[in-house]
Amino acid sequence: MNPDMSDISDTSSLSNPSNPPDTSGPPPLFWRISGNPAALPGFRQGLRQPALAVGVRRGAAGWPDSLDAAWRIAFPHAAGPEPLPPGSDPVLMRLLQWNRIIQRAARLPIYEDGHILRWRDKRHDPMLLLPGLEPQATLLVVRWLERWSNRLAAREAGDAVERFDDELRTEAEHLLTQLKRHFPQNTNSLHFVDAAHALDIPWQHLGGGILQFGQGRQARRMDSSFTDATGNIASRIARHKALTGNLLRRGGLPGSAPLSVTDADAAVATAERIGYPVVIKPADLDGGVGVAAGLGSADEVRQAFEAARKHTQEILLEKHFHGRDYRLSVLNGRLLWAIERVPGGVRGDGVHTVQELVDETNRDPRRSPTAATPLYPLELDDEAKTLLAAAGLDIDSVPASGRQVTLRRTANVSRGGYPVAVNDQVHADNRALAERATRLLGLDLAGIDLLIPDIATSWRESGALICEVNGQPQFNVVTAGHLYAEILGHLLHGDGRIPSIAVLGRSAAGSLADDIAQHLAAAGLQAGLAGVANGPNARIGAEPLACPQNLHAQGNALLLQPDTDALILQIADPVALEQGLPCDRIDHVLIAADADDALLNAILPQLLPACRRSVIVAAAHACVPRVQATCARHGLRLVIEPGDQGLAVCAVHMLLAPAAASPAREGRAQAGE
């Protein structure tokens, strides 16, 4: 028996996403997976993400509070679940919630709990639609929850007496490690997707860390903070620190002059030739890895060289420039934001030791050794102890009240530093310097690392050094979290969506879709058609595409094409949405004259939750009263066209109208045409 509209109590249709839930065998103590979970690569039930459909066989036990407590122990950095909605099934709702919480703990972009689908025939198990970036990741979470929730429930029931908190934590860490393989774990990617979700910008992970934001001709692609406009030559220059410094100096800007050193002896000889203090840094790494600044002796140079050698074989040495460390972020030739990066350290209070001050600093919940938090812990390692000794202190010393104790030679956040916003203090000359350096290297987006005594004083007066140009800058959410939305706003027009319409009908839908495409072409827009009944299964303009035989794959192919101006989905079969929609939102739904009850009953309950503007139908269609009530329930406009002949023209008019517009045609429809 397939789950269709007549069998699911909320009138949703899954067509045939998986085997029917298995009701054979004795019920579990708590719950277990029923049937075969099935991936839904498209968008279903109004969800904004693809989902995994999982049948759930319930046992007699409810959801004990101790399970939530156990999961909080297993995932200490994750947020706990929200209160259960009144009247909801606690077991099924908690499974939805913890799937989202655990995947977010692994830095996967999950934003909603999902849906519970119940069968009218109570003999069949309910089904969960669990949102997830990839079905394999969601299935890992579900199977982990199945194993551990039943195991902990058995302990609650007295069937087991052993405690296994350590094993639970270990397996939770292993689960997170597995999940993190499914999405890039750099600082930027998740925050860009978070910003896109908040701005209602469609996105998808293309693989290899590449993200697409927007659709068709409106789309842009990014790899962390690389954009599709970042040139290969420009990024290569920025990644080569010696080449960057040389180009800056040749271009008349204050760039560094690093020298390559092959061993510790060569490093010491070079340092003594150019004069102390000096800086040792890898030639090909970012994030402050292997960097040691302010080195004042041969011993310090040797130690720093050996430390850098652990990360790379290409090591540079340059003269140290005394100044404060600033990061200036530039996009398309304009300064976006500026921060000062303060080296990791503590401020004395005259009471506590250095060790105690460090411990207190590390208790800040924003600090942890993982990328899940914006700041990193301070460590009292050899570098910190060397700097303490140079200041006449050790870890047991009590610094005087107000004394700043520096524990790092560099100010990178990844090394325990912290950022301070200084955007309103940047001197106009320093702003122009950062913008000119970005243009010189040919970058569209860059982070300019500037050493200068004071960002409020012109570099022409005080002197300055551009020590590095980052072609793929990382943004810290403590002071620069707003940049993700701002950058997307610069890259995209509005929400990055192209106009879209779904045409429902049997044979008439094909001619309607063609007419709409021709009218759009006359207006200078190239439409992509998916689900075409006759001829190629998907085409852009008149050009056919080679796509799988399902609406989701065809529509997604069109959304990936950079010359698709509008999307037309032709839906002529009740199972057309078996894989889901190719996009999370459809602007309009057009009901053709030959759209019968079987098609409408199967498709509308799935389509209307994703529709964001209007439903268009001819006045003579028998479905008008029912559709009118449904549109009111979903907050949609009902556009009633007097005759069948005008449906295509009406559809084009609606597609070309701004989203906020309220054309007179819609006004008449709402007035009861």
UniProtKB/TrEMBL annotation:
It comes from Sterolibacterium denitrificans. One of its GO terms (biological process) is SOS response. GO terms for cellular component: cytoplasm. SUPFAM superfamilies: Glutathione synthetase ATP-binding domain-like. Its EC number is 6.3.2.30. PANTHER family: BETA-CITRYLGLUTAMATE SYNTHASE B-RELATED (PTHR21621:SF0), RIBOSOMAL PROTEIN S6 MODIFICATION PROTEIN (PTHR21621). Residues 245-517 form the ATP-grasp domain. Residues 1-29 are annotated as: Disordered. This is Cyanophycin synthase (L-arginine-adding). InterPro entries: ATP-grasp, CPAse_ATP-bd, Dala_Dala_lig_C.
